Amino acid sequence: MWTEWMGAWALVPGAQGGVSRATCALVPEAEGASFWIAWTNADGAAQVARGHVDVAGVVDAPGFVGARIVVDGDGLVITQVGGAVFGVFVRAPVKQVIVYRRDLTMRKGKIAAQVAHASMKALLALDEGAGPRFVLDLPGPMAVWARGSFAKVVLSVEDEAALDAVYAHARAAGLPAARITDSGRTEFKGVPTRTTVAVGPWTADEIDKVTGPGGLVETKLA
User: Fold this and answer.
1) Is the CB of residue 118 less than 8 Å from the CB of residue 197?
2) pLDDT at res. 89
3) 24 bridge partner residues
4) Structure confidence at residue 43 (pLDDT)
5) Strand (E) or helix (H) holding 163
6) How far apart are the C-alpha atoms of 152 and 33, rounded to whole Å?
7) Counting CB atoms within 10 angstroms of each CB, which of 20, 72, 107, 144 has the fewest?
8) For residue 11, how many C-alpha atoms fall within 13 Å in the half-sphere facing its CB?
9) 25 by DSSP, 3-state: which?
């Protein structure tokens, strides 16, 4: 069933066709699904393509016109015109991680509010609408998350330096990230204070390189 393709997929380690890494995302549409793929060539050049795939698995996207998608066991295979395999992919869970500062000793309600601010800002920062109309053209993994269960993980970091490091590393890795500075009206004695950072939504393995066990910034489960 073609609906089995829906979700995010990551390239199996071991380059195929000169591709060193890739992420594919498929989100249901009225007929078929939206198709989004980002990959890095063997020479390190980053590429992104988006388009459509019909219920038969035929792709219509720049660089992939006529390519086919099939599910082979637990994997997804993209085969280009002529039969060359672009890549074999496995499921890539998507999530959002929000980190807050332990050193601020915020009230539980304050933490909840700041976490919510960061989570929303990560998506709404992409708004291209005007007035009351929001238009969000989400990259593939973000669209998968928004159409799914909104998986979130809340973590804490030691201080402002660690919070800023999460934000900097996420941005450097090309991950969606949002940082919240509280106005200080209810806490922090009126001083604007950085409180939280949201990373993602994106694929879990990429986020974990920054915030997960052994990641670039030490975090604790809240």
Assistant:
1) yes
2) 95
3) 9, 37
4) 82
5) helix 160-172
6) 25
7) 72
8) 20
9) strand
What parts of the chain have a pLDDT lower than 70? 1-2, 15-17
Identify residue 23 by its one-letter amino acid code: T
Q: Which residues contact 124 (CB under 8 A, 6 or more apart)?
A: 134, 136
> What type of residue is 123?
L
* Tens digits of residue pLDDT in 134-178: 999 999 999 999 999 999 999 999 999 999 999 999 999 999 999
Distance CA 219, CA 210 (A): 9
Specify the CATH architecture of the domain 94-221. Answer: 3-Layer(aba) Sandwich (3.40)
CA-based nearest residue to 197, from 141, 159, 149, 142:
159
Q: Is 109 helix (H, G, I), strand (E, B) or coil?
A: helix
Which pLDDT does position 130 carry in this prediction?
A: 96
pLDDT, residue 13, reads 78
Start-to-end CA span in the chain (Å): 39
2-91 CATH fold: Lipocalin (2.40.128)
Instruction: Give the angle 178-180-182 at the CA atoms, nearest 5°.
Output: 170
Domains of the chain, residue spans: 2-91, 94-221
> E strand or H helix at 87, and its extent?
strand 85-91
Query: C-alpha distances in angstroms, 78 versus 9, 49, 186?
Result: 11, 14, 53
**What's the whole-model pTM score?**
0.93
